[in-house]
Design brief:
Layout: H1 3-8, H2 12-27, H3 32-47, H4 55-59, E1 63-64, H5 66-76, H6 80-87, E2 88-90, E3 96-98, H7 120-124, H8 140-146, H9 148-161
Bound molecules: iron/sulfur cluster (SF4) (2 copies).
Length: 162
């Protein structure tokens, strides 16, 4: 079974175990975990092709900043104001986000229409590399429900350190 299938078949027990583990991580200041996460991120993304998944693009509207808007608008040959009218809404936290899920830039083969100009939030998701794993510890539990890679990174990390 491939990693995406294993993730689809995850159980309530997996969720409970991840919840406990992430709560422990959120209190940890052990920077070595960031390096371990980087290695596991590389390892897991060798085995998962995002083009077979695209779940983040289907269900999580990315946050945008003004630079993201300008870059994506330029890429599409639009004025930033027009880009905002067509593709942006303000969410309940008053953040600018893409206005639809699945994302309007997600193509039928799971490629991103604006890949070279995609928002920073899309470039950084799922926040498990760049030595920022601990900084985003509290996101890893919800993300393990949305992203098979996060699920497997947590699983492998548990195996290494427990
Ligand atoms: S949810 Fe995770 S594995 Fe799936 S496309 Fe997004 S980053 Fe890749
Ligand atoms: S902009 Fe591209 S990478 Fe970001 S959510 Fe949309 S399709 Fe996915």
């Amino acid at each position: 079974m491939d990693l995406i299938e294993i993730w689809k078949n995850r159980t309530k027990e997996d969720y409970t175990a991840n919840k406990k583990f992430v709560a422990k991580l959120a209190k940890s200041k052990d920077k070595k975990l960031n390096a371990l996460a980087n290695d596991l991120h590389e390892e897991v993304f060798e085995e998962i092709d995002c083009l077979d998944c695209a779940n983040c693009c289907k269900i999580i509207p990315p946050i945008l900043n003004e630079t993201d808007v300008k870059r994506a608008a330029k890429f599409l040959g639009l004025k930033p104001t027009v880009f905002k009218e067509r593709y942006v809404r303000i969410d309940e936290d008053q953040d600018m986000v893409i206005n639809n899920s699945p994302c309007p830039f997600l193509e039928s083969d799971n490629k991103c229409e604006i890949y070279e100009a995609r928002p920073k939030a899309c470039r950084e998701y799922p926040h498990t590399d760049n030595y920022e794993f601990l900084k985003h510890a509290r996101l890893h539990l919800p993300n393990s429900e949305h992203c098979p890679a996060v699920f497997h990174i947590l699983k492998r990390m548990k195996d290494v350190i427990s």
